[in-house]
Amino acid sequence: MTTILTSTLPARPETAPAPEYAPRIAIADPAALGLGAFALTTFVLSLANSGLIPSAGAAVIGLALFYGGIAQFAAGMWEFVKGNTFGATAFTSYGAFWLAFWWLLTHPETEAAAGADGIGAFLLAWTIFTVFMTIAALKTNRMLVALFAAATLTFLALTVGSFTGIVGVHQLGGWIGLVTAGIAWYGSFAVVTNTTWKRTVLPLGHLR
């Protein structure tokens, strides 16, 4: 009887082996690259827009493709890997902005077809995008808030300059762009230095 009862009981499940998890791969902070690419490309373009070095407008073409465009876009992809929605959206978007800008510079027929109003609409759209990124930045750090606020003013001045044709307003956008580039360079400098030195050397002013 004991044998019969025992044979009718469900078999005890074997202990399942503990799942093996692959170790998480640590990657470098892509913000230093993203901010540096944005800063340097913006700086060179702003030298032309401000009227300080007009020929910088030609020199920025390669930067718009390779550094401001491809390198910054790649930084955005790595921010996705790190789970940073803000950084991923910002770097990928502005990387795409520089790629689109490169396209306009290297396809004169497209730029001519767009005209001043078309370029103004292009810049207006980026102004709107930068405004809502500025609002999102209020939960990050003071450096990013200052950067996106300055970038908003840069896009706004360039937008107005394109729609109105007023050279002074366009040049004002160039001067504000130089400030924007300086802030982004500081952010890149801070991230790479703090990470390398493994302590806060240059504060970013966290707001969280």
TrEMBL record:
Protein origin, superkingdom: Bacteria
TM annotation in the entry: 21-45, 51-74, 86-106, 118-138, 145-166, 172-192
Keyword Mitochondrion in annotation: no
UniProt topology in membrane: Multi-pass membrane protein
Native source organism of the sequence: Cryobacterium roopkundense
GO cellular component annotations of the record: plasma membrane
Subcellular location: Membrane
Lineage, opening ranks: Bacteria, Bacillati, Actinomycetota, Actinomycetes, Micrococcales
Entry-linked InterPro entries: AceTr, Gpr1/Fun34/SatP-like
Keywords: Membrane, Transmembrane, Transmembrane helix
GO molecular function: acetate transmembrane transporter activity
The family this protein is said to belong to: Belongs to the acetate uptake transporter (AceTr) (TC 2.A.96) family.
Designated name of the protein: Uncharacterized protein
